[in-house]
Task: structure prediction
Amino acid sequence: MSGPVVLTGRGLVGGIAEGEALVTREAVSGWGGVEPRRGRIIESRHELVGQSFAGKVLVFPGAKGSSGWSGMFHMSRLMGSAPAAMVFTTMNTKIALGVVVTHVPAVTDLDRDPFAVIRTGDWLRVDADRGQVIVTPRSR
Amino acid sequence: MRLTDGERAMLDGADGEAVAAAMDLLVRYGEVLGAERLVDTDNVCGANLFGSRHSLVCGSPTPDAAFSEHSLDAPRVLTIPPVRAQSYQLIGPMDTKHWQVQGLPQAEHDEIVASEKYSADHGIHLMNTCTPYQVGNVPVRGEHCAWMESSAVVYVNSVLGARTNVEGRESTGAAMLTGKIPYWGLHLEENRHGTHLVEVTTPVQSNRDWGLLGYWIGEQVQEEGIPVLDGITTTPDLVRLKHFGAAAASSGGVELYHVPGITAEARSVEEAFAGAAPRVRLRYGPDERRAAYERLNGTATDTSVDLVMIGCPHATLGQIRDVVRLLEGRRVHPDSELWVFTPRALRHIAEQNGYAQALEDAGAVLMSDTCPAIGQFLPKGTRVIATDSAKQVHYLPAIMNVQGWFGTLAECVDAAVTGTWQGVQP
Result:
């Protein structure tokens, strides 16, 4: 078992949150791709289809699809099924507005490729005030 | 982010708490984007019609509560003033004429009607369509807009040369109250040049051809890229570009494309790339078209069709007329439904023209204001749908847990008449 790894980037929405990582290299569709009541991915061809991000740290490239992206994640917050934090790599208006209205810590522009470092199930501490993601690998 | 004195005053509450909350949202959003400033806009398309799905989670049943939460991300319920910018309601949850066909309860109907009245009272134009450019909101080249609805954004950016990013409900709500939006992304000239050169080596002519091409390009380009189409030999019309853009904005995040010689900002391939070399070169031929077709039909196995949906994005009068002609002397199968969706304004014209009656006589319904994906409704017991829209067949199976067939308008009308899908791969 290895020790924690620290990735540093740009913190977007302030705050600190911890949770299990849910990692995908595929961008996530919000409206039509997410069911907000349980925070489940429903896009039929997405590799995470059927899985929930509720309470987890979603590590993903970013947002794709409909302009309803922010509205869907906004709704997941109101329904208590939002991710604990978001770590992503590609900025666009959908993800920017999405992280703002989800009110969870979010970090991007990391100094290392998060997909090379973080695996689903790793424990993450996202400190958006300092722009840090601290990765504690799950015992394998 | 740098604010002007006027913007700073709005943020500080000079125009009231709701405008301050709107400015606060724009500042938070702009700073995440890394925008240096805001830009003025007097053309905002958003989505502020709310039913129980939205009001139940607000903690207060008033329309002000829904707007404060869902349209502004405000910290508490505020009194919302009339909008400042010219503001337009996009597609919404309900057809005010055929709401019973949707299966909506009276209480839900009443709540959405009240929400419409609230929007109208605040000066939001009730266009109720995903295609504002069909019914009078036709921005000009270079006009800074703040639009939601990815299919409309890609249309006005590309075909008309307007400038908007894909905005969301909260940013358009804030733009309506302030007349401002972050100056970022596609508002800047230097971000509007081509990145991907798509060499089209197979004829692209019909609506289906354009939908397939768009769907394939979206998958290739994903979120980062402005495709430039080379090899288009037949000038497309509004319907084809509407289908193309909607498809490309569904499978990927295409917000702008260029068809040199046809769309607004590029007379040649060189101009589309502003003299630079394409970052990526792609080729679209018969194999790619087949792959897109198979992907779009990947959710369906049963050939018994319960619903045929036409009008995603909302149908033009021409499409409605085509459906009427294809139905001539035929009737929709007793086990199927045929629903055609259009903007409310065009439904009125279709009524004047007799198209609505002709559809009704054939057992079809001409609906407006909404669609099955936005409103989340289907005929009771629906397991299989068919549509001529790549976008609708991309979304509806995921949202409503049904199988979906994609094909031509003629194949779709045949499916409604026979109750059976008999589409043929191109």
The longest helix of chain A spans residues 69-78. The first strand of chain A starts at residue 5 and ends at 8. Chain A has a mean pLDDT of 94. Chain A is about 15% helix and 30% strand.
